[in-house]
Write a structure and sequence with these properties.
CATH architecture of the largest domain in chain C: 2-Layer Sandwich
Number of strands of chain B: 3
Strand content of chain B: under 5%
Radius of gyration of chain B: 20 Å
Strand order of the largest sheet of chain C: 9-2-11-10
Helix content of chain C: 25-40%
Order of helices and strands of chain B: EEHHHHHHHHEHH
Oligomer: heterotrimer
Helix content of chain B: 55-70%
CATH topology of chain B: Fumarate Reductase Cytochrome B subunit
Structural class of chain B: mainly alpha
Largest interface: B-C, 59 and 55 residues
């Protein structure tokens, strides 16, 4: 989230699209109901289904799954052609004025530099034009035909309301109402928040969905202000924490990059990421990259990290490609993986193409599951009839189950969508012999290290170099681990004048105290301050809110630097004054930046220094055009899902995302719209949490059985009665469940043709208290987004038929 | 005279006094079961009918067992009464002379039976008791099933149950009143109880109250 | 935001009300307390309800109930009806608003309304099995319940359910045990959007006004409070977007009253019935006293003997 859950109450307009906050985030959704009830905010929901969020909405617009970019581009076009943008914000706080290289082109959906054989772009032309001073060329009048603002106008002109209706199946009037409502916030007086989740990410063009939303918010000036923002609703209680600490396969903790093979030395790695301001006077967090990186290495390798050995950089693995979860299972399927350690992970349910997953698991020598519950994955070898139809005699994989404590049985921190790190205290003793993840992994590490010490092996040096100097190596304490995340001074840390600001041994108060000479450690700069000299801020429970804006600055700790709204310098105009009294937040008081939050800016830089407000970016401004930072283009383009009932009506030559990650067999496993005419999307139900709560009796009572949601029209066409058992199948697999025939699903008119859509809840499996069901991911495809590799769960093709069985 | 007033098992024993067999052992057992059931039903029903009589549930082991037993006793009563019905209905068929009897109710109540037509095995009053009980019990069992929630709650709507419970209560009241008449008559008309206990009455009783029946018993023909 | 009740102290506290605060007791009379406690109420704002069923789970958990895992029958309502274990249930209605042309998904949390004039209590034959406290809570006392199901017939909202296991009647208690120590009901505590709020009845009415204003500003011109006068008002109230059409909310009665049949049954029938029985018995006594026993005379016996001996009587 750029903003926070509690900040949503400040919104004047809430737009939920690509998510279903009322169902998937019911507790956070309270802030939407607050904004509505206490502020008179309007809520609009754009979704393929009239879901429980839509039930709360003032306006609902249906959209065919997978066509979000066309819809959002339509909104961008509406704002631009009707001149409903926040002009000063766009001019000064975005790169609208920047001039693009002459070589950059856009033709029939493709940007310059496309190589079809590699399915990738050479992004060198997607760059600003630089002046002789080395800075980007700008035209603050926004009139230059090669400035980003003018390029945008041209790029989005074709996304008319009529086109949106043709592509998305959204009736024109419903679309226009959305666009009109959005435009009412393009003035610095009213704010719109956008709430999204996996309905946007889980597409072969998911990252571009979100980019489109960010562009709308920038055009309206809704970034950095209370009640604004582009807010990703995280789907697990601590999934934000998990991403923060670096379980992304190409990152180390704190979103720093894992080295690649092209970066053999620390210098080669750092020089690529050295901060080069693209506008005069610019300042940035990233000038500290070196300090963050060295501090990380010091935590990782301790005394073994010295200036002479590049702080142990050599011990880090060097990537030769992307090793995300889908790739890992592809390798496993190829027989290239011996063992799998699943820590709180149920891949048979969670990842696409479960038939392939099942085959891949069968090729393992061993599978270890660390989980508080028995997952479907650990039973993949067991025959559960049609729901998991395998022959156990043919599967040789040895399966180990290690019972792990659940969250209520251990102490530690959880980071929520608001980036707020909050402490949880232990509430109950663990069941039976279950142990914490820390105990299990530590024991495993210590044993493995002993074996390497004795027997040697590949990567021995790195393994032995790891600093494991905990009081009890078999069970590092939670304080020791939090100290590692936070960082401490290894020797006295001094400021520019030579004054000691942090004595040796003390924990750091902020990432500003990190040093690149090895005098500090700290493996996650963004968390620095959570456990500073003043104690564990994650434990803070002060619910006072002096500003009344839902800041709650003394509750927990929000990274970075306890900031609740990111980019909050943008809540003031270039002169440092609030855009309006209604949206007053951070402002220049003549001496420093002040307001209810921690400024996302150097607090003492006055407005007249003309330093851009987006100090995370080399430009100092936000990017309407992302240069070469995204794999599939500097602007979003309408791309159909890989399985789509229609061709690309905007760019007929474009078949899916041209640079999406496609494995060898993925294309063959795609169904066509003749055999599979119905669009399907998966989602979770509010009554369940993923695949966990199907093991909980009370939750199973609330939603006991897998079902297929469909319109009355489709049911009639297929001869399906409400409550009847139906079979739904794709090119890859099938599932059976009850039909929920509802007015909440309606057929779409796409390019004059009727397109039906069905909804498939993903919570049900063959283990647990609910009625047995096939994993719904037996139907989904593994084709992944070109930037995030996230599979396209949210739009694929199926067919449906009634099957014999009781009509309930 | 077309119809015999005599039931199988009715008979006359000469002597002083004359003894007349009025009810067979089977009929008596059948009546006893019916009588006991009806009394229990009355007690348990009244207990649930009005708070004043709720303490009567103590006789049955408390409110819950009263609630549980009452419908089962009702089933017993119904089946038992069904037996009585088939035993007795023929001689309870209404006849023209019954109208005369009814029209002279004042003489009946005064005990001046000589002023009345001779009566067969049952007089018009007894027939009225018989037929009203038959009808009432049918209504009671039907409405009773509708409100027997333990087994039948899902078969009826709440509105149907409300109507049924009202009908059940009202019918039960009428049934109790009829029962009072029946019992009172048996007490008032001395010599009757023997018919229920031993199955026998004296010849004088039969002469006085059911002369036509006695005559037929004696002559063996109607 | 409606200020929620603060978390409770962990120390035991005396109950705020009890037997001495009863204003009604089934099949028996109570002396009402000299001073009535402040009336409490739960307000369910249908327009704020996201249908998450947290209230249903909270109810199961707090009251230590276990419901059976059912099946899907083509709707989101699970279980499909109230049961002896499900005291509260979300009912989902897809309503096509002809006026606005919009689909509305109306989600109503069903459960006991805690009527000011409770039909269940009126119908109950077991003394003390249903009680009403002066704060408005209507509660079932299970060790006195005999399982007759009369409360089911008395209730205008079709709420009580008889357990198949122990044949006793069950329904929402308004968490009488929590309210007694100053807490709101479990469902209210679990509700993430404050669609359920709890407080004094006056507070709830005020809060409802605040909500109704908001709804009217959004075009729901018939938004209003459901506090049906036919049962003397209720201690569970709804804010409805369409208060003129309660029946569209999964058959919420338009104007609930205790059924006239129940009124007759529990009123005139009771007195008239006892009077009739008494009258019949009395007539018998009087007749006997006046007319005397109807005895068989010697003459009658003689006549019988004569008849049997073939002589003329």
């Amino acid at each position: 989230m750029t903003n926070s859950w509690t900040d949503i109450k400040n919104a004047d307009l809430v737009w939920i699209m690509g998510g279903n906050a009322a169902e998937a985030h019911p507790c956070g959704f309270k802030w939407v109901t607050e904004a509505k009830a206490e502020r008179g905010a309007k809520l609009m929901v754009v979704d393929p289904r009239f879901n429980r969020s839509a039930a709360m909405a003032d306006h609902y617009a249906p959209i065919r799954s997978g066509s979000d970019i066309a819809f959002l581009s339509g909104v961008i076009n509406y704002l631009l052609t009707n001149d409903k943008i926040h002009k000063e914000y766009v001019r000064h706080y975005t790169n609208a004025a920047f001039i693009v290289k002459d070589e950059f082109e856009f033709n029939e959906g493709l940007f310059s530099g496309y190589d079809e054989s590699k399915r990738s772009y050479d992004r060198s032309t997607w760059e600003y034009k630089f002046g002789p001073d080395g800075f980007a060329v700008r035209d603050m009048t926004l009139q230059d035909p090669r400035c980003i603002f003018q390029l945008m106008k041209k790029h989005f002109a074709q996304y008319t309301p009529e086109l949106v209706e043709r592509v998305c199946g959204t009736p024109k009037d419903k679309f226009l109402k959305v666009a009109e409502w959005v435009s009412t916030t393009a003035n610095g007086e009213r704010a719109m928040t956008i709430m999204y989740a996996l309905g946007w990410t889980q597409h072969s063009h998911g990252a571009q969905n979100i980019r489109s939303a960010a562009m709308i918010q920038l055009l309206c000036g809704n970034i950095g202000i209370p009640g604004g923002g582009v807010n990703a609703l995280r789907g697990h209680s601590n999934v934000q924490g998990i991403t923060d600490v670096g379980t992304l396969t190409a990152a180390i903790p704190g979103y720093l990059a894992l080295p690649t093979e092209q970066e053999p030395t620390l210098e080669s790695h750092l020089s690529k990421r050295a901060f080069k301001p693209l506008t005069p006077n610019q300042t940035s967090y990233w000038q500290n990259y070196r300090k963050f990186y060295v501090s990380f290495l010091k935590t990782q390798f301790g005394a073994n990290a010295t200036k002479d050995n590049e702080f142990g950089y050599n011990y880090l693995p060097k990537l030769d490609g992307i090793y995300d979860c889908i790739k890992m299972f592809d390798l496993m399927h190829q027989g290239k993986t011996n063992g799998l350690l699943c820590q709180g992970f149920n891949p048979l349910m969670a990842i696409p193409n479960s038939n392939k997953t099942r085959e891949a698991l069968s090729k393992l020598k061993f599978l270890v599951s660390m989980d508080p519950i028995e997952t479907d994955t650990v039973r993949f070898w067991e025959n559960h009839g049609e729901f998991n139809n395998v022959d156990p005699a043919k599967i040789k994989t040895e399966v180990f189950m290690l019972p792990v404590t659940s969250w209520a049985e251990e102490e530690g921190s959880v980071t929520n969508s608001s980036r707020c790190i909050q402490w949880r205290w232990k509430a109950a003793d663990p069941y039976f012999e279950s142990k914490t993840d820390i105990e299990i992994l530590s024991d495993l590490f210590v044993r493995m290290r002993k074996m390497y010490e004795k027997d040697g092996g590949k990567g021995k040096e790195a393994l032995l170099a790891v600093d494991w100097s905990y009081k009890n190596p078999l069970e590092p304490s939670i304080e020791e681990l939090l100290t590692e995340l936070n960082g401490k001074a290894l020797s006295d840390v001094k400021d520019a004048e030579g004054k000691v600001i942090r004595a040796a041994g003390q924990r750091l108060a902020s990432f500003g105290e990190m040093r690149d000479d090895g005098s500090t450690d700290g493996c996650m700069w963004i968390y620095t301050g959570v456990y500073g000299p003043a104690g564990n801020f994650a434990m803070r429970r002060d619910n006072s809110d002096p500003s009344g804006l839902g800041v709650y600055g003394n509750w927990g700790f929000s990274w970075p630097a306890n900031r609740r709204i990111q980019y909050n310098r943008a809540s003031a105009d270039p002169d440092g004054k609030p855009w309006s009294e209604a949206k007053k937040y951070m402002y220049w008081n003549g001496e420093r930046w002040t307001g209810p939050d921690v400024p996302d800016y150097v607090p003492t830089i006055p407005p007249d220094r003309a330093v851009g407000p987006f100090i995370m970016n080399a430009e100092g401004v936000s990017r309407l055009w992302v240069r070469g930072l995204m794999a599939d283009g500097p602007f979003p383009v309408h791309m159909e899902p890989f399985e789509s009932p229609v061709g690309n009506l905007v760019f007929p030559k474009l078949k899916g995302n041209p640079v999406a990650r496609v494995f060898k067999n993925d294309m063959e496993a795609l169904g066509n719209s003749k055999d599979f005419p119905i669009v399907a999307t998966t989602y979770r139900l509010t009554e369940h949490f993923h695949f966990w709560t199907k093991n909980v009796h009370a939750n199973a009572v609330m939603q006991p059985e897998f079902f297929v949601e469909m319109s009355e029209q489709l049911a009639k066409e297929k001869g399906i009665k409400n409550g009847q058992r139906v079979r739904v199948w794709s090119k890859r697999g099938e599932a059976k469940g009850k039909a929920v025939v509802t007015k909440r699903m309606t057929p779409f008119k796409v390019d004059g043709k009727t397109v039906h859509q069905v909804g498939l809840p993903l919570n049900f499996g063959f283990i647990g208290e609910t009625k047995k069901a096939s994993p719904i991911n037996g139907l989904t495809s593994a084709i992944g987004d070109s930037n995030s590799q996230t599979p396209e769960f949210k739009a694929f093709l199926v067919n449906v038929e009634p099957i014999a069985g009781p009509v309930a | 005279m077309s119809k015999s007033e005599v039931d199988a098992g009715d008979g006359v024993h000469r002597g002083k006094p004359v003894i007349v067999d009025r009810y067979s052992l089977g009929a008596r057992i059948n009546h006893w079961i019916t009588a006991i059931s009806l009394v229990l039903l009355g007690l348990s029903g009244l207990a649930l009918f009005t708070p004043v009589l709720y303490p009567l549930t103590g006789l049955f082991g408390g409110g819950a067992t009263t609630r549980m037993l009452h419908p089962w006793i009702g089933v017993v009563l119904f089946l038992s009464f069904l037996g009585l019905f088939f035993r007795f209905f023929r001689l309870n068929l209404w006849e023209r002379t019954d109208n005369v009897w009814m029209s002279r109710l004042r003489d009946v109540l005064a005990g001046d039976e000589n002023k009345l037509p001779e009566v067969g095995k049952y007089n018009a009053g007894q027939k009225m008791v018989f037929w009203s009980m038959s009808l009432l019990i049918l209504v009671l069992i039907t409405s009773g099933v509708v409100i027997w929630d333990q087994y039948f709650s899902s078969y009826f709507t709440i509105e149907q149950k409300r109507i049924a419970v009202l009908i059940h209560s009202a019918t039960a009241i009428v049934a109790i009143c009829v029962w009072i008449v029946h019992v009172y008559a048996a007490i008032w008309v001395r010599g009757t109880i023997g018919a229920m206990t031993r199955g026998q009455v004296t010849g004088g009783w039969a002469w006085r109250h059911h002369r036509k029946w006695l005559r037929e018993l004696v002559t063996g023909k109607n | 935001m409606f200020t929620p009740v603060a978390n409770p102290t962990t120390k035991p506290v005396p109950a705020k009300f009890g037997e001495q605060d009863l204003i009604r007791r089934s099949a028996s009379k109570v002396t009402p307390p000299a001073k009535r406690q402040t009336e409490v109420a739960k307000l369910i704002d249908v327009s704020k309800c996201i249908g998450c069923k947290a209230c249903q789970v909270a109810c199961l958990e707090w009251n230590n109930l276990t419901e059976d895992v059912g099946v899907n029958v083509g709707v989101y309502d699970n279980p499909h009806d109230l049961t002896e274990n499900t005291w509260t249930l979300m009912r989902y209605t897809e309503y096509e608003n002809a006026e606005s042309g919009n689909l509305e998904w109306l989600i109503r949390k069903d459960g006991c309304m805690h009527c000011e004039d409770p039909g269940c209590l009126k119908a109950c034959p077991a003394p003390g099995a249903i009680v009403q406290y002066s704060n408005g809570i209507v509660d079932f006392v299970h060790d006195k319940c005999i399982g007759c199901g009369y409360c089911v017939k008395g209730c205008p909202f079709n709420i009580p359910r008889i357990s198949k296991a122990d044949s006793k009647a069950y329904k929402c208690t308004l968490c009488v045990d929590r309210v007694a120590v100053g807490q709101g009901p479990a469902c209210q505590k679990a509700c993430p959007t404050q669609a359920i709020v709890f407080g004094t009845k006056d507070e709830m009415k005020q809060w409802a006004d605040h909500r109704i204003k908001d709804l009217k500003s959004r075009g729901f011109k018939n938004a209003g409070l459901y506090d049906p006068p036919g049962v003397g008002g209720t201690h569970v109230m709804y804010v409805l977007q369409h208060a003129d059409k309660p029946q569209i909310y999964a058959s919420l009665p338009n104007n609930p009253t205790i059924s006239p049949i129940v009124e007759i049954w529990k009123g005139v029938t009771k007195y008239a019935g006892l009077a009739a029985i008494g009258a019949f018995a009395a007539i018998g006594f009087i007749h006997h006293a006046v007319a005397g026993a109807n005895r068989v005379s010697e003459e009658d016996e003689k006549n019988a003997e004569r008849l049997t001996e073939g002589r003329q009587p």
